[in-house]
Write the structure tokens for this entry.
Amino acid sequence: MNRKIKALLDWIRTGQEVFNGNMSVRRVWNDPARVGEVSKEEHEEHISLVKEKVYDEENNSVLKRRAAAYRVMALIFTVFFAVVLVLTVSYMPPTGEIYKPDNNEVSARYLEKGLEETGAVNAVAGMILDYRAFDTLGESHVLFVAAVAVMVLLRVDRESKNKNRLGMLDLEDDTMYEPHHDAVLQKVAILLVPVIMLFGIYVVLNGHLSPGGGFSGGAIIGAALMLYLNAYGFERTEKFFTEKVYTRISFCALAFYALAKCYAFFCGANGLNSHISKGIAGHILSAGLILPLDIAVGCVVACTMYSFYALFRKGGF
Amino acid sequence: MTVFQCILLLFLIICAVAASLSKNLLNSVLIFMAYSLIMSVIWMLLESPDLAITEAAVGAGVTSILFFVTLNRIRSMFKNANDKKKKEAGDESEDQSTP
């Protein structure tokens, strides 16, 4: 121990490396002064031998102790949190009881006056896109910001993309794993993609009448786009969905959402007569702003899901 | 109905535990997918079809696909095939060191 401290102090004072001459992990084969001494393969073999020795859990007591402590701590941690969560749940009131604290006048108002005030048959759509539309605006922006963050992290810039195409850079690309013109996948996709797409559009457009809405419908459309991309490759999808299309659709949808809700809030707060009629409940063109807002949210979600996938796959569209 | 719900909840717990205990990451993601599907059926039984649709589309669909792509990216989906490829390419062996 004393020797180690002395060596450390020496190293601090003189700046001389302690292990100089005793141990080396430098790339000797790369060193022009020592060329021909050790080949690259030999060097790597030595490194892997050292690593096997150092990280050998059975003989390295420090690693062994650390692994055991890690397991015990993980177990204690998990059990502790499981107990805390189960205890918390046991104090919660049972589902569907009348005296539950969330059975208050707010939800009663939503259910009783919702159809009258928002014009939406689906109470959930009336809640999230009318009473609490501001929350949904925030959620759409969270998705957009997430997509932007993924883009910042994973996007391959245009210069290196061009270089990669010319074979100057060896960028990691997973297109080698992807099946090229897989007949089964393409036939299945040609049958399924239109159906899934139609279902997604149906869910978006009927958000105020039946379960669903912008978010779930958009996710379904995004899944259809992903399936199409998997079956036909990036060449086909890049014809209609590029980065420019993505930014334009997202910006227009979010801006439309914000402006429409600004108008609604302005009218509501000042007691003005909104020019958007509620329509007849149950019709497709009803419920005022809910249908266009659903479409806007659906556009943002579908584009974002697809762009996540495209960015994860190859760092671009 | 309650028997059905109990079976579903049991499956849910089994899936949650199995997903965290599975050694293979690909299996974990598949189990997680099953978890989401069961969860969406439970949402349906709890009379919230909106959540059920969202859970099925996002939880079982999009999230799992993104997990698959990530596993492919970090080279742990087809581990052996990639190791072989790596050895052939003569890559640095340093980035595989996991204590």
